[in-house]
Design a protein that fits this description.
It is found in: Cytoplasm, Cytoskeleton; Nucleus. Its cofactor is Zn(2+). One of its GO terms (biological process) is innate immune response. It catalyses: L-methionyl-[protein] + [thioredoxin]-disulfide + H2O = L-methionyl-(R)-S-oxide-[protein] + [thioredoxin]-dithiol; [thioredoxin]-disulfide + L-methionine + H2O = L-methionine (R)-S-oxide + [thioredoxin]-dithiol. The chain is mostly beta strands. Helix content is about 0%, strand content about 35%. The protein is built from no helices and seven strands. A hairpin with a 7-residue loop joins β3 and β4.
Length: about 90
């Protein structure tokens, strides 16, 4: 079993310059800076992917999906349903 662990030093959490966030393994486009928002978690937060096939989602619970790169399958984190900046919006 694996668990998320944060040891500090996340460089993109407070990075809000215009651009695109890509997979660190294969450079597949994942998120646009336009969907990024400030959040209390230690990781960057986004409301949406660039395209529907940017990521693959695997249901973990009724409120969370495991998120993988849509091209190479590298683990990216989670999508939390209804935890975005507005009601009814998810947070990646």
């Amino acid at each position: 079993m694996s668990f998320c662990h944060f040891s500090g030093g996340e460089v993109y959490k407070d990075h809000f310059k215009p651009g695109m966030y890509v997979c660190s393994k294969c450079n597949h486009p994942l998120f646009s800076s336009r969907s990024k928002f400030a959040h209390s978690s230690p990781w960057p937060a986004f409301t949406d992917t660039i395209t529907e096939d940017s990521v693959t989602r695997m249901m973990e619970s009724l409120t969370a999906y495991k998120v993988l790169c849509g091209k190479c399958g590298s683990g990216l984190g989670h999508e939390f349903v209804n935890d975005g900046p507005e009601e009814g919006v998810s947070r990646f």
